[in-house]
Design goal:
Distance between the termini: 7 Å
Helix content: 40-55%
Order of helices and strands: HH
Structural class: mainly alpha
Number of helices: 2
Strand content: under 5%
Number of strands: 0
Shape: extended
Largest sheet: none
Length: about 60
């Protein structure tokens, strides 16, 4: 993966604990679980609202 990673801070302890539990259930690292959730959100959004146009130079992994 050539993309530069971003940092996501989750301050709510209950939310973080639930995310960690979901990640373990799906056999993923916490960061992988968050990335999967974001990807699902974007797919759902695009199904309802159409494709989100991005700059052609953005690397699609």
């Amino acid at each position: 993966m050539s993309a530069k990673p971003i940092t996501v801070r989750i301050y709510d302890k209950k939310t973080k604990a639930k995310l960690q539990k979901l990640a373990r259930r799906h056999v993923r690292f916490l960061s992988q679980e968050v990335e999967w959730i974001v990807q699902q959100y974007i797919e759902d959004y695009e199904r309802q609202n159409g494709e989100i146009k991005i700059d052609e130079s953005v690397d699609e992994d």
